[in-house]
Give the backbone structure.
Amino acid sequence: MKTLIVHAHPEPKSLNSSLKDIAVSTLEGAGHEVRVSDLYAMDWKAVVDASDYGPEASNPLKIARDSGRAFEAGALTPDVLAEQEKLLWADTIILQFPLWWYTMPAILKGWVDRVFTYRFAYGVGEHSSTRYGERFGEGTLAGRRALLSVTVGGPESHYAARGINGPIDDLLFPIHHGILYYPGVEVLPPFVLHSADQLAEEDYAKAAEAWKRRLLTLESTDPIAFRRQNFGDYEIPSLLLKEGLEPAGRTGFGLHVSS
């Protein structure tokens, strides 16, 4: 297994950094290859601008079109090209981050914004009366698997079905479905560590062991059963889920999970 870990926390002594280090040692100890993109250590540029696209940048800047032209011309910046190469090399992707304001840190979102360019992560495939491009189960990154390892400050009850913050699966849906599954990555159920700011030493030891167990079962874990776009569940071109496919009473994001 070849694993890319994208790590987003500014403190090398943080819980997130510890979980990243455990992932590296556990996976390498099991004979797997691991690469790490430590975004803060890399001083990753988190904002998209015209400098990302070199001579392919237009005025006014057109992000999708210009990023696609730069990708096809090989004119993307070296840092972005290196991350795209890592994604193509990997068969497993781990995003390691704290949940900040209900989403990923800005530096990690900036990694997505810059690396997932048009013609690489989106804007690929056939558009016709029966297909709407290669996405949501198909695409450049199809055949890969991903796992979110997320630390959360609040207790688990705050993120339960009736919790005030909303269900954790709903909060992570835009990342699971909209960032990872969109370009074809199969998404594994997340590893979520709650009450991260209040972990006692014995709780950390238990969490570390649970994390190691998850890492050693990545290849045998079933992914979330998101519906594939072009395989009959959705009307095209409206992309509405066909009537009657959802389990009784299911609404919202859950409509896009088939089981």
Q: What stands out?
A: The mean pLDDT is 95. The first strand starts at residue 2 and ends at 7. The beta strands are 2-7, 33-38, 92-98, 145-151, 186-187, 191-193. The first helix runs from residue 15 to 29.
